[in-house]
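tool=predict chain=A
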Amino acid sequence: MIKAVFMDYTGTMVKEDEPYTRELVGYFASHSDLKDPNEILKVVWTRIKIIEAKSFGDSFLLNDEKIDLILEYCAREHGLKGDFAYIHEVWHKVWVYAPLFEDVKPFFDRTKLPVYVLSNDDMCFLEESMRVKDLHPAGIISAETARACKPNRLIFEKAMEIAGVKPDEAVLIGDSVTSDIEPARLLGITPIYISRKEPAVLDGARVIRTLDELNI
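tool=predict ok
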């Protein structure tokens, strides 16, 4: 019997293509050798994943520490200059004010199960985001909570500990095969892959286009 829902935050609950992200991309384009928006996003996300893979235990880094490393890399490799404090401020707004997908609040309102938010973002930003969006999850499990970033199994194990459930008593809804679906499946958590942009087929996981398809 399913007793809890674990839900990824960025890309599953909130939109990645939003005004503050576009502001950041525009700043990088005007203050570095990187000019193409897609290239900028690729460089930044690649560095984020590299840094997060090393961020656990005694080596765990908070969001702003990760951003410092990204800015140092982009300054060294891509000539990034400008007001780094401003970049941090805009990034804070991304973490808090990225808008919800339209199906998220209705899902929270109708589901009978407790919903726990899972994210690699810091707890302070996630708590403020929930307040701003008037969402009331049963709990928030951040990388900070587990001192490990997805896809590290520690964050999923911490989520099960906080929710008080076994793997076969939880579902995980996420938009990343690598960070959400595969680690959940390996731990025995039922994975649900949300592919909002286009139809998809994924072995070992149910695929949905919208949260409206779920009746749990």
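The chain has two domains: 4-15+99-213, 19-97. The two ends are 11 Å apart (CA to CA).
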